[in-house]
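The aim of this short unit is practical: by the end, you should be able to scan a pair of folded records and say something sensible about each. We start with the first protein, listed as its amino acid sequence and then its structure tokens.
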Amino acid sequence: MGIGDEVRRNVELKKPLTALISRGCLPVGGVFRLDYDSAVVLTDDFKKREAGGVPRGGFLLAVAGENTDSGFILEDQEIILLRVRGTAPLPNESELIQTRLAVVRDAGASGVGFDDVTDVLTRNELQQSAFDCEVLGTFYTETDDRDARIEYGADIDNVVVSARYQVFLPSTEVLSWLGSYPEPAEARDSLPIGKVRFAATRRKALIAGTDQAEVRIDVSDFVGRKTAVFGMTRTGKSNTIKTLVTAVHRYGSEHDRAIGQLIFDPQGEYANVNRQDGTGLRLLGDDDSGVRIYKVEPSRSDNREKSLRINFYDREVLEAAWSLVSEATASVNTNYGKNFRSAVLAEPDTDDYSQQSRWGWALVAFYGLLSKCGFPGDSFPQDLKVTAPAAPMNDFMTANPNAVFQVGKAGNYRVKSPSGACALAEWVGEHPDDFPKWHETEKCHFSAVYGVYKFTGVTAAIRSIRGFHGAQSAGDVSEHLWQDMLAGRLAIVDLSSGNDQVAKVMSERIVSHLLNRAGERFRADDEPVNMQIIVEEAHNLFERGGREVADDPWVRLSKEAAKYRMGLIYATQEVTSVDKRILSNTSNWLIAHLNSGHETRELADYYDFKVWTPSIIRAEDVGFVRMKTYSGKYIVPVQIAKFDHSMVNSARKAAGLAAVDAQAESE
């Protein structure tokens, strides 16, 4: 080889894609049939063994070029990316099967090894096989310059039928590059999410070292977009969510962006430091300026913990209180139960004196019912004034001297306390002839509410949500959470103390409030608020196709979130429980083990997850997911890294906080 040829080869070897193939990629065969969607790769047992094994779903690189002493030099700066779907028959497959059959038969009959009944040429022929591969796309450079950027197209733009493509198995370094493509523009936005993993059986990958191929994602993909985390219980969904929440928290600090994150926590797993992780999300902040945790029973010694309770007697949260009470009684499917839930307690026009009076009567019945069900309260945050006939009210006040008192002229009264409201409601209920207008059913809802006073089914159901009432609580939790999002805090709503129905109502109301507040800012042309909403056990909250968009806050979120910069991360084991309108607007997908063909068939409608359904059903390994991100060009199978305390301290450092000892915090 002359000096000129050597210089040329050295130049060629430094071109981006040629250099990529030269980073330890091992040859496994060649393409003998290629079309726009698939390729068949001829290989043999020796090449597969030397390369460290070729798993189903694995990446292969097909390139045209020549082997040299210095490395493989590409003819064109392009690489076809293939994914192994399975095996393919060779043109002489029937002959090979007959020969293999004869070898097995003869070796068994003579009691010798297989190699003893075949010659070298036959053995070589029998070791040949083929892979059926899916064509994923093409890596290419627009120029042949050494510093040209590597681009990717999700197809191929030409089919060459001659046997010119050699096929390589990516090395650990190249596999990491493939799993992480495209790298984020800024290195600090890169999150090591785990390692490439193609199969549940990892022996070959361990020997070859490809189990150490790191996968890095762009954290910005998960900000302001929808992310689905699917998998059975105990397959690592919570671990994945904690990793993403911590990464977004760090990302916000590093970019000086206030990104509020709200977690609906059905089991209390996110609100506390636990032994399994050795850390917890609450450690992302030292006080309530960075982290707030809403609980039914908050700790007085930790200002990060806030009350999740609302004062059911506070008219500022009347809508929330009535929603919770209505949903709590949903299982009482009797006529009086239905009539009760049909009552309307929304405040009428303040200028409509007649409707205001009737509304006051309904409030007496409602607040009296709460008192009857054991909701404590010595007084009302706002005056509860009612009008009533003077004569019968005098009789009532004589019998109940501390319940109400007259204000101004006769006929106007103020109810002093919830217990007073209960006494008045029961008196009016037992004397309908003295209070005829209170018992009108067309325009007044007093009777609908009072009608359940003596039925234990309804009152028992209402008592079940007493834990969410706090007589000393002030304001609306939904508004508190909106302020948290404005400030860029991490807020965790611990729903572990309530039943599923209460959790559903409360979370929907919070999401609706956030959407409404974000919509107000949007219409006022104010800067949107960056926020993320994280939902665990989403099948308990979502309702597929059950309501119109306007009535379903989760579908509203999927449709309106982009313009409001509201992201959504939802985790569930039931793909079919998620409204198709949400699935269709999901950008990031992380799929762990699912045990149902019904669920995987639903999943198969999106991207090319159909290819992965056999693996998703069979492989039950914790943290083994198939991942498609917003900027990612194809699905990458990943073993998700375990969430640990170093991630938390990394995020704390970005926020300017000192490192903490997780063990000390848990004690």
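Turning to the second protein, read its sequence before its tokens, just as you did above.
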Amino acid sequence: MNRNAGRDISQDTTGNADGAAGREVSRVADGAADREVSRTADRAADRDVSRIADITGRDVSRIVIENCAVATVDAHDTEHPSGHVVVAGDRIESVGAGRAPQGLAGVVRRIDGTGHLVTPGLVNTHHHFYQWLTRGLAQDSNLFDWLVALYPTWARIDEPMVHAAARGSLAMMVRGGVTTAMDHHYVFPRGSGDLLGAEIRAARELGVRFTAARGSMDLGVSDGGLPPDFAVESTEEALAATEEAIDTHHDPGFGAMLQIAVAPCSPFSVSTELLREAAALARRKGVRLHTHGSETVEEEKFCQERFGMGPTDYFASTGWLGEDVWMAHCVHMSDTDVQAFARTGTGVAHCPSSNARLAAGIARVPDLLAAGVPVGLGVDGTASNESGELHTELRNALLVNRLGVHREKALTARQALRLGTHGGARVLGRQDQIGSLEPGKLADLVLWKLDGLGHSSIADPVAALVLGAPAPVTLSLVGGVPVVESGRLLRVDEDEIAREARAEARRLARIAAGG
């Protein structure tokens, strides 16, 4: 094996360096051991090393990654067996075959990616961070039994618990190649503190791009819902809090690190009024809409009995189909439902591990894709997907869908990678910014190590990534800033996160048990 594989061998070549130039900067890996060696990086923030001004007047430094396989996931699925990516500031400057262009100014880091594959960063499109504290419970339940078993515990969460759970959920995803995370938080017990703010703080700590879907429920047990009454809001409270979250936190800009979506929980936990008013609010504010849809046969039965129509028709009647909407799961859909999603541009967050864990069924992903429906991947809450890692969903999306009617023709490895990158970006409405490696897009990318024991004998790097064991992350960039190197989170102490999450999980269990 080439001992330079994955190594940072950069130095500034322009003579404009500020003192950091001319010496070796932080290594990504030592080929034989993946250990950290000499660094000039400040682990907690962007490095201030030699910079130059480009022709637009922006101050930029460049990172060059070369000698690696490149899967761009662009419109043509362009790949390079040995290619390069050049990052300038927070953007991708160039992508191509062979070595990077010579004579680039302001190069502060040059990485030999031999034995690696570079892809766009993974994009998670559905999650419930708070569930990190209740993993491993209700192991043999379907969705409704699982909810009945866990809502009494979830109704006791508070701000410190949610912060610990969000850090655990995010740490697992980011360490595994996620650069854009999303969470759907809908449980707001009275007096529990700033739960949405706790998640936002956690995302900032880890340096990940984040879509916070401000969820809501206004149907408690006394109104025919599943959660305890003290864990739901009134319709007016939910709408007011959602609008406040948008006004306080949403950034509509190109490189936004934080965006807000409007996200009532599901047809069986919110009123028709809340659904309709939430859709109106989202469109008045120019933000996206998210909810659960068509997850189980029980949901289909509920909608038929309560509204006289199936979930898709019900959503259509409340304004919940459109290019600004995406729904989690969408397992039980008829041909007419699929056509309605395709016609309106409504997106889907496919969560294969959770769907299997809760015995919900196999989503019609090949049919959705063939119809032109935007589809991304989601971890879903870690009480129904204990691994909490999106990379696992690449593999499971391919394998689970091959158990369906399309069998071996269901999905390819490259389609699975597209679901986890460009597909997710499209579902979140950010396909012009992230999700593929193209000049001008944000520099959210992952360098995967594929020359180790788990992958070295698989000649096709994309197949190695999707079908093989979870690949080590040698480097992950969000907006050109490293967040993972050599498999370790740079901004936080994951051992401390694990200890805090364990303590908060035990505290939640004691409170829920009346202790």
